[in-house]
Specification:
There is one protein chain. The protein has three domains: 117 residues, Periplasmic binding protein-like II (D-Maltodextrin-Binding Protein, domain 2); 76 residues, Periplasmic binding protein-like II (D-Maltodextrin-Binding Protein, domain 2, 3-Layer(aba) Sandwich), CATH 3.40.190.10; 70 residues, Double Stranded RNA Binding Domain. 31% of the residues lie in helices and 22% in strands. Helix 8 runs parallel beside helix 9. The protein is α/β, with parallel strands linked by helices. Helix 1 links the parallel strand 1 and strand 2. It has ten helices and 13 strands. The chain has a five-stranded mixed sheet, with helices on both faces. A five-stranded mixed sheet has the order 7-6-8-5-9, sandwiched between helices.
């Protein structure tokens, strides 16, 4: 007997569609009888590309309308970039559950247009991220910055206007644009955004059949790493528009996680880094956030 058709809610950008199609392919590989229809949702973040993302609510604006499509029954599950999914408990809609995290891609940031060391003094780097600006300013205080928003193609089209632009390495790889990369930045230079390179798939909490289906495409190491990073950000009490970053990695298969994190002043003049290891993702993320805030000066950097 064939499984029921399922509908995946997604933003309409080429990257978002790739991500939804990728999850659909994973589901079909797990169960060839599954039929997946993509339901495109146009979000406020997609409509208002003329203003900084933090001015319209941060990256959560990319998630909430896609989530609503699942809650009101227009779709059965939602596919997000994990970095766009708010981590604070009060911003997580009742009735939805993070059902799976497929295998993560490269979480690092990349420069398009120039390597960091090759940028001329005073060069302009374009990015809409305060996290990226702060860390690049810490590495190269001479750099200047310009805002940049839009989908992958529109940002790449504007790259010649600047010394360089900053993008997620995974996004470029997923759209076959790796050749545009001048340099993939080491995490020693640029700690990634929480969840960067990972996908997050949500469904209704009471849909036991679909939760079981989605569990088949969960990549446990990626899920543990994303859970640790999200717990870190939730405990920090921040959103995706703060000059903060975190990256978790497995030290060995099924063993401890190592979580590296950063809090910076917006101008990059002050940067605090910390790391810790632990087996429980949630405990690890929460404890490292508390350490950064209360013992290593992070609270002052965030103006609290």
């Amino acid at each position: 007997m064939a499984a029921r058709p399922v509908r995946a809610a997604s933003r309409g950008s080429p990257l978002a569609r790739w991500q939804a199609d990728h999850v659909a392919a994973l589901l079909r590989a797990a169960d060839p009888d599954v039929e997946v229809e993509v339901v495109v949702v146009r979000t406020e973040g997609d409509r208002r590309t003329d203003v900084p993302i933090e001015a319209i609510g941060g990256r959560g604006v990319f998630a909430k309308e896609v989530q609503q499509a699942v809650l009101d029954g227009r779709a059965d599950f939602a596919v997000h970039s994990a970095k766009d999914l708010p981590s604070a408990p009060d911003l997580q809609p009742a009735g939805l559950v993070l059902a799976c995290v497929p295998q993560r891609a490269d979480p690092r940031d990349a420069l398009v247009g120039s390597r960091l060391s090759d940028l001329s003094t005073g060069a302009v780097v374009a990015t809409g991220s305060v996290r990226r600006r702060a860390q690049l300013a810490a590495a190269r205080p001479d750099l200047r910055f310009a805002g940049l928003r839009g989908n992958i193609d529109s940002r790449l089209a504007r790259a010649p206007e600047f010394g360089a632009i900053v993008m997620a390495s995974a996004a470029l790889a997923r759209l076959g644009r790796q050749a545009e990369i001048a340099e993939v930045l080491s995490t020693a230079v640029m700690v990634p955004q929480v969840g960067q390179g990972a996908l997050a798939v949500e469904c209704r909490a009471d849909d036991a059949w679909l939760r079981g289906l989605l569990a088949a495409v969960e990549h446990r190491p990626s899920r543990r790493c994303v859970d640790a990073e999200r717990a870190w950000l939730a405990t920090l009490g921040g959103a995706c528009d703060l000059p903060v970053g975190a990256l978790a990695t497995e030290e060995e298969a099924g063993g401890d996680l190592r979580l590296e994190a950063l809090v910076a002043s917006p101008d990059g003049a002050r940067v605090v880094r910390a790391s810790a290891t632990g087996a429980d993702p949630t405990v690890l993320g929460a404890s490292l956030a508390a350490d950064l805030l209360d013992r290593q000066g992070g609270r002052a950097l965030l103006g609290r």
